[in-house]
Design brief:
The protein has one domain: CNF1/YfiH-like putative cysteine hydrolases. The chain is α/β, with parallel strands linked by helices and 254 residues long. Helix content is 20%, strand content 27%.
């Protein structure tokens, strides 16, 4: 589980916490300079927050991790399943997963209800950061990312450690049949009272990790929810689309 302190700027997944050769963290909404409704650590540029605030917040977050913002590689995400092999830092377009084996390139994905997944291969020294909304989840973006790591770096999934991060939880992710039909029965629940389905994105993505070959004991799943813990995390759904964004990040130490 993650260690919670009073209003932290970020939380580090426990599964990576003792490792000295990577930096991995998930931001909260705390400790930034943005005002409502983006209060306060809004790290997302695709909002109507003041751009200067977003830049200051990014520097605050990455500096707190001991990372120069110029080291960061991230992409404008499109809820797809395209994977970028990032050989240098920068801003990219159209990718929802990034992988690298280059120390000093800090991968990051933006989140505000969708599921972040961070992967570390300690044998081949490679990392991945994945943004999995419901569309990316049904497109098997986690499985595809691991396959890409195998092809690119020789990664063996059984060697990997993974974190399934903070997102909208099953009890809050109410969907219609047009979305639910894309999910297997073990990842959805019908609610007779609400006449709706509920989707478990955390389990769906964790099961992709298991199916790809990761060991169950090498997978950590966040205890937090963007909706249930909305005082600590941004939630696009709970805040009716007008809110900030968090980042999940992982990188090899130079």
């Amino acid at each position: 589980m993650l260690t919670q302190t009073d209003k932290p700027l970020f939380r580090k997944p426990a599964i990576f916490a003792e490792l000295k050769n990577i930096i991995a963290a998930e931001s909260t909404r705390n400790g930034g300079v943005s005002t409502a409704p983006f209060d306060s650590l809004n790290l997302g540029g695709s909002t109507t927050d003041k751009p200067d605030n977003v830049i200051k917040n990014n520097h605050l977050f990455f500096n707190a991790l001991g990372i120069d913002f110029e080291q960061v590689a991230k992409s404008h995400q499109v809820h797809g399943a395209e994977i970028l092999t990032a050989d240098k830092a920068g801003r990219y377009e159209g990718y929802d997963a990034l992988i690298t084996n280059i120390p000093g390139v800090q991968l990051a994905v933006t989140i505000a209800d969708c599921t972040p997944i961070l992967i570390f291969d300690p044998a081949r020294k490679a990392v991945a950061a994945i943004h999995a909304g419901w569309r990316g989840t049904v497109q098997q973006i986690v499985a595809k990312t691991l396959a890409k790591m195998q092809d690119s770096f020789g990664t063996a999934p059984e060697d990997c450690l993974a974190y399934v991060g903070t997102c909208i939880d099953e009890c809050s992710f109410e969907v219609g049949e047009e979305v639910a039909e894309h999910f297997q029965s073990e990842h959805k629940r019908w609610d007779n009272d609400r006449n709706k389905f509920f989707i478990d994105l955390k389990k769906a993505n964790a099961d992709q990790l298991l199916s790809a070959g990761l060991k169950k004991e090498n997978i950590e799943i966040s205890m937090f929810s963007t909706v249930l813990h909305n005082d600590d995390y941004f939630s696009y759904r709970a805040e009716n689309g007008t809110t900030g964004r968090m980042l999940a990040t992982i990188g090899l130490v130079p």
